Amino acid sequence: MRLLVCISKTPDTTSKIRFDADSKNFIEEGVQFILNPYDEWYSLVRAIEIRESIGGQVDVIHVGNTSSDILIRKALAIGADAAFRIEDEASNSTSVAYQIAEFVKSHPYDIVFVGKETIDHNGSEVGSKLAAFLNLPFVSFCNHLEITNNIAVCSMEIDGGNEIIELNIPFVLSAAKGLAEQRIPNMKGIIDAKKKPLNVIAKVNVENHSELVRFETPAAKSGVRMIDPDKLDEMVDIFKNELKII
């Protein structure tokens, strides 16, 4: 079974986020980048588990420049067999999905994995757009996956329970928490990763239909206001007249 895992680069959650004077560009200086956890912990690990169970090939693909190579090598160290990097800036979800779709059209896979979202933009857009460009079924926010005789059984958490569906391969899947357990690269994996291929692919032209206007940081949180527990009227007045929630 041929499995492709789409991986992305995100700032570590402890990083200080800054933008330039026009609020259009994220300042990467001094920022520690990591593999997006939904891609690494759930998508990649579940793909490796499937290969270990029924055989096959696990490849990873990334849209970005050479600064991402160290993170791609980490995916190889965890257990991916080969890696592909499309030489382009990951400027928006449409461009990323289209670039990957063009690759998959000439390199067919049985399942294409994406994380349910990246922890920086939280857009949850690439998976559905990728499936649309490929004209494939899309399973979103999957937390359990089993494969038997080319039939997939997928579970997705919904309000009040889980939705379970059955479908034929190929398809695109976005991975949510619960799909797999995180794996840490061991020394053998790190050494082997240096020998595995990392193929660089030229980008294709993509017509973008959206434009980034600006980034905005959330308003600073105010300090905690202490209210005497015996003065409930004061608390009600704050909720009603200041917070406008009652």
| Biggest β-sheet strands, sense, barrel | 9 strands, mixed
Q: Which structural class do you get from the secondary structure elements?
A: alpha/beta
C-alpha termini separation = 56 Å
How many whole angstroms does the radius of gyration measure?
Answer: 21 Å
Count of alpha and pi helical runs: 6
- How would you sum up the global shape? globular
Per the CATH scheme, the topology name is Rossmann fold
Q: CATH homologous superfamily?
A: HUPs
Total DSSP E strands: 11
Helix content: 25-40%
Helices and strands, in order, run as EEEHEHEHEHEEEEHEH
CATH architecture: 3-Layer(aba) Sandwich
**Beta-strand content:** 25-35%
Mean pLDDT: 90
CATH class, named Alpha Beta
Number of domains: 1
Task: Report a brief summary of the structure.
This protein is α/β, with parallel strands linked by helices and 246 residues long. The chain has helices at 37-54, 69-78, 93-106, 126-134, 187-193, 232-242, and strands spanning 2-6, 9-11, 33-35, 57-64, 82-87, 111-115, 138-148, 151-158, 161-168, 171-175, 198-202.
Write up what this structure looks like:
With 246 residues, the chain is of the alpha/beta class. It has one domain (2-215): HUPs (Rossmann fold). It contains 6 helices and 11 strands. It has a 9-stranded mixed beta sheet, sandwiched between helices. It has a two-stranded antiparallel sheet with strand order 2-3. Strand 4, helix 2 and strand 5 (82-87) form a beta-alpha-beta unit. The longest helix is centred in the N-terminal third of the chain and has 18 residues, at 37-54.
